C-alpha cells in the first residue's frame, strides 16, 4: 500500500482537487450528525419565519381546503421528547436495516463458503478467448450480488486470465472493475442493493405522508436493471478492446509475471477442481429447490404468496395481476436470504468448508460482524431522515421544489437526466450508495412524486448516476485495492494512471445510462412488475391551492 500512498500524494490537476476535497470530508456517519445539527438550526429559523406549504393530498377537515403544513422546530418540546423516547424505534424501524440484514445473513454464508468465488471463477475460466472481455464484464456485473467477492476475487483473477491469453492484464482488471463497480446497479435480478435502496425510498415516502399506502417492492427496478446489464455489456467490451487495451500496448510480461506479488486476494485456484465442481452442482440443486418452493407458494392451492382477495373491492378494470402478486414481490427479500443461505450451505457441505451446523452459524455471525459499520451509519441516517420528517421541511422543500421545476417548463425525462448527472457528481465526494440516497431521498422522492414520477423512477435515476462514477473517484473504498492489483503487473502504475484508464468507461456508462433513463420515461415502460414510471397522487376530497410560502 506504500506505493498507492505515494501515488496519491503526487496527484495533480482536477483529479487532485477531487481527491484533496474529498479527503477533507468527514466520515459519512459524522456527515449525518453534522447535517442533523444544521437541520435543527434550519428548522428553528423556518419555524420562526412561518415557512409553510399546502399539502398536495390532505384536507383540513375544519376548513375543507388543503391542509397547511408549517415548518416545526426540532427543539420544540414534542420533538425533543420524540427524539429521546423514540430513539430505539427510530433506529430499528428504519426500513433498509431489516431488508439488508436479512439478505446479508444468507449472502455471508454464500461468500464465506466459497460459493461466490467458485461460481465467478468457473464462469470466467470457461470463457473462450475471443469472448473473454464480455464474459468478464457480464460476470462482474452479476457478481454484484456477491458483495466484496466481486472485488477481491474476480478483479485480480481477470488480470491473470488476460495475461494467460496473451493480453494485457491491466485491460482485464479494467474490464472487471468497470463491471463490478461501474455497472454496480446493473444485474439480471434484484438483490441486496435493491433491498437497501428501496428501503430508503420507502422511508422517504413514509416520511412525506404523500401516499401512506405505498410500500417498497425490491423488484421495482427489475426490468430497468436487466436492460442496463445488456446495455453496459457491449459498452465495456468496446471500451476495453478498442480504447483501453490499445493504449496499454502489447503485453510482454508473460502469463504469470507479477500475478502472485502479494497475498492481498484469495488464490483463484482454491475454488476450482473436482471438489469445487461438486460443490457448484450441489449449490445448483439448492437453487432449484428454492425456486420450486416459491413457485409452489404461488401456484399451489391456497397460494400463500398471492392475495386473491385483493381485487374484491376494486373494479375489475382497475385491478391487475400485480395487485394480487404484492405478497410475492414483498417476499423476495426472504427469497434471496434463503437462496444465498442454502446454495452457500450446499456448496460448503460438498467441499468440506461447512462440517456442522456450528460452522453455518459462525458464517452467519461473521457476516453480521461485517455489517457493524453499516449499523452505525444506519443509526445516523435513520435519525436524519426521521428528523427531516418531524420538521416538515422535507415535504415543504418537495412542494416548492416541484413548483419551481414546473415553472421552468423542463420535460420530466430531462429532469431525471439532470438528476443522474448531479448524483454522478456527488458520487465523486460521497462514495457510499446508501449514505447518498439517505441524504437525497427525503427531498427528491416526494418532489418527483409531485411531478408525476414514481418512487421507483426516482430510485432508478439515482442508481444510474451512483454507479457510473464509482470507478474514477479515489475515495471509493476499493480504489486503493484495485491500484495494488494493478501494481502487481506494472510497478509504476499510479493513482492517476488508474483513474485515466477508467475515465472512458465512466464517461460512456454515464452517457448511456442517462440516455436510457430519459428514453425509458419518454416511452413509459414499466421499471419492474407493478412499477410504472409515472405516478398519480391519491385523490383528495377538494381541490388544492397552489403552494405558498410565508
Q: How are the strands of the biggest sheet laid out side by side?
A: 1-2
Structural class: mainly alpha
Portion in helices: 55-70%
Mean pLDDT: 82
Kindly list the characteristics that best describe this protein.
transmembrane, 24 helices, 2% strand, secondary active p-aminobenzoyl-glutamate transmembrane transporter activity, AbgT, transmembrane helix, two-stranded antiparallel ribbon, disordered C terminus, disordered N terminus, 550 residues
Account of the 3D structure:
The chain crosses the membrane at residues 29-48, 97-119, 131-164, 218-239, 283-300, 332-350, 371-390, 410-430, 437-455, 467-486, 498-523. Keywords: Membrane, Transmembrane, Transmembrane helix. The protein is mainly α and 550 residues long. The chain has one domain (78-252, 266-523). The protein has helices at 2-9, 13-24, 28-49, 77-85, 87-92, 95-112, 115-125, 132-142, 148-164, 169-182, 192-208, 222-248, 274-299, 321-324, 326-330, 332-351, 357-370, 372-391, 393-408, 412-426, 433-450, 455-468, 479-487, 495-523, and strands at 52-59, 66-70. It has a two-stranded antiparallel ribbon. Helix 6 (95-112) packs antiparallel against helix 11, helix 18 runs parallel beside helix 21 and helix 20 packs across helix 22 (455-468). It is globular, with a radius of gyration of 25 Å. 50% of the residues are buried.
Brief sketch in words of this structure:
With 550 residues, the chain is mainly α. 66% of the residues lie in helices and 2% in strands.
Topology:
Layout (H helix, E strand, L loop, with lengths): L1 H8 L3 H12 L3 H22 L2 E8 L6 E5 L6 H9 L1 H6 L2 H18 L2 H11 L6 H11 L5 H17 L4 H14 L9 H17 L13 H27 L25 H26 L21 H4 L1 H5 L1 H20 L5 H14 L1 H20 L1 H16 L3 H15 L6 H18 L4 H14 L10 H9 L7 H29 L27
Antiparallel strand pairs: 1-2
Helix pairs in contact: 3-18, 6-11, 6-16, 6-17, 7-9, 8-9, 8-10, 8-12, 9-10, 9-23, 10-12, 11-18, 11-21, 12-24, 13-16, 18-21, 19-21, 20-22, 20-24, 21-22, 22-24
Protein name: Membrane protein
Keywords: Membrane, Transmembrane, Transmembrane helix
InterPro entries: AbgT
